Amino acid sequence: MILASLPELDRRLTQVTIENMLEKYRIFKTVTFEAKEAGITYSYMERFHGATNSVTDQTAAIATHNVDVPAARRAYCAMIDSVVERLTLREQQLVRERYMRREESYDYTIYNHVFDPPVSKDTYVKIRSKAFYKMALALADLQLLSLATLEKTTGASREK
Length: 160
Fold this sequence. Notes:
This is Transcriptional regulator. By secondary structure, the protein is mostly helical.
């Protein structure tokens, strides 16, 4: 069996991408889904075109939307939760406290007050970088992001 080598990812780009995905997670968890309702009052509107031979079912489209969107939101949150559960305890603690809680918190709060014993900023950045790298690999396996967009480019290819 041949194992592929792990890709070298751009740390900053990976951080931004994972933070955006975790922000989407936080929004899905905190913002309530508003179900659409079918309009029952019709107004007369004169139409000057021929038949389109298309049939629309507003009620079915709305019902499908009201079922599919919350299900997709729950599935996305479940995938993010499963990825975070695979991290080490410190990495889990960092991601959950900093990015997955309802209220915003700051990095210095996490490394000074949440971690026991407190860690330095540099150690915190190392833990976060490792967590985001692992999350990027796992999310790529789940096809939620593409590693090709996060791979580190060489100086020669950046100039092109």
